[in-house]
Automatic annotation (TrEMBL):
Keyword vocabulary terms for this entry: DNA damage, DNA repair, DNA replication, Hydrolase, Magnesium, Metal-binding, Mutator protein
Enzyme Commission number: 3.6.1.55
Residue span, Nudix hydrolase domain: 3-128
Cofactor: Mg(2+)
Top-level enzyme category: hydrolase
Protein name (database record): 8-oxo-dGTP diphosphatase
Sequence similarity: Belongs to the Nudix hydrolase family.
Catalytic activity field: 8-oxo-dGTP + H2O = 8-oxo-dGMP + diphosphate + H(+)
PROSITE patterns registered for this protein in UniProt: NUDIX, NUDIX_BOX
Keyword Nucleotide-binding tagged: no
């Protein structure tokens, strides 16, 4: 069995738009759109990991809201990503972005047109089915 990589992503929604982030080319899954977030460290909760990652990536404080019930898993050559998605709000401005080539606030329709990481495709469908 492939090594499991526990990852948490943020569904940050403001004015009916979702914050999508394009992974920098050269990283694993580079060039795909994803949720801001990252790997959950040992002995860390998904919520704590998300708060830490948002601060590291954007220099922004956040409030962590509700988690989606489902875990989205996808096998790659480097391991099996197990993605948890949690709604979150930014409490301060994004002052930097160190891991992404682009950030974009997208409507439901625009979100459907982005080239999401394969792990994220069912997660986006779930968010759209709930509405934002
Ligand atoms: N942050 C994030 N990572 C995701 C998503 N979907 C998905 O498959 N992933 C994958 C990409 C990475 O393999 C892993 C997250 O790791 P990370 O974002 O901490 O990446 P890292 O800096 O450690 O990456 P790297 O060293 O492997 O390039 O999960 C998502 O929506 N957000």
């Amino acid at each position: 069995m492939k090594k499991e990589i526990s990852v948490v992503g943020a569904a940050i929604i403001k004015d009916h738009k979702l914050l999508a982030a394009k992974r920098s080319v050269g990283r694993s899954l580079g060039g795909y759109w994803e949720f801001p977030g990252g790997k959950i460290e040992k002995d860390e909760t998904a919520e704590a990991a998300l708060k830490r990652e948002i601060f590291e990536e954007f220099g922004a404080k956040s409030t962590i809201l509700k988690k989606l019930d489902q875990i989205f898993s996808k096998e790659y050559d480097f391991g099996t990503v197990m993605l948890e998605v949690i709604y979150a709000e930014l409490d301060s401005e994004i002052i930097k972005t160190i891991e992404h080539d682009e950030l974009k606030w997208v409507s439901e329709t625009e979100a459907q047109q982005l080239n999401w990481a394969p792990t994220d495709i069912p997660a986006i469908a779930e968010l759209i089915s709930k509405g934002f």
